[in-house]
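Re-run requested by the PI after the first attempt was lost when the workstation crashed. Everything re-entered from the original request form. Ligand of interest: alpha-D-ribofuranose.
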Amino acid sequence: MTDVVVVGSANADLVVEVPRRPAGGETLLGSDLVVHPGGKGANQAAASARAGGATRLVACFGDDGNGAFLRERLEAADVDLGGVWMVDRPTGTAIILVTPDGENSIVVSPGANGALDVAAVEADESGWADARVLVLSMEIPAATVDHAAAAAAARGIRVVLNAAPARPLPPETLAVCDPLIVNEHEARTLLGREADGFEGLAQGLLDAGARSVVITLGADGALFADAGGIRREPGRLVRVVDTTGAGDAFVGATACELARGAALDEAVRFAVAMSALTVGARGAQSSYPDRSVVERFLAAG
Ligand code: RIB
């Protein structure tokens, strides 16, 4: 039984806390290095599983220590790794600098993620019979994203696409996004022009073909739009330690809720709460709470 299939990246996150971002040519001393499980796809799968969704990850790991580390952490989060391929490339890594305000700068070395090709996805599709939602993000080859979106749509599986990092999407892929989830910067990149505020960005992406759109607004929550109009879910006041992976928690939580039959409004409300809870702890997956914690947080108002 699978509720949510995530086709995406997996990285070992090499994290150093720094007092500020270094300038070009500058050497800065930071904290001891900490390695966390990461990668947008793996993070989204972990978030969906923590939120209670039966979740399968389709990804590529290298046959190395980082691959073994990711496997162990994702299994502990209850993610089905039956769709993970071992390939002859190093497991993806991300170099992450975190500043005292909790913000990060990330450089990804895709490694094995670059081997997640159309054939790897096709080989997994027969196992998607009872899946309700497919989650995609953009740290894997573009052709793989487009193929997986089309394959899911053809099977009646709802497509949640997180266009991060942003790159233009072909109209056929945009047309099956329900929702397309982006931050403000990604929304502008996809739209390719200025728009009137967040509402204008969301409307522009709907007009471009997406079935529904969610724009994440960090501490200010999210704005979302579909045929029912444009609505906002306010942010929640929390202490910020590290925002890494908060957007992925939002995507995974949204997918899980939609797979459970929630309306977009309810899914976004749950996802805002879950992602807010992640920023109080370090790392991406390492900071994701279980469903019961999110429900208590929501009940507390
Ligand atoms: O969105 C956060 C993630 O981006 C990190 O875990 C890092 O691996 C990069 O993929």
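Saved to the shared folder this time. The CA atoms of residues 6 and 135 lie 5 Å apart.
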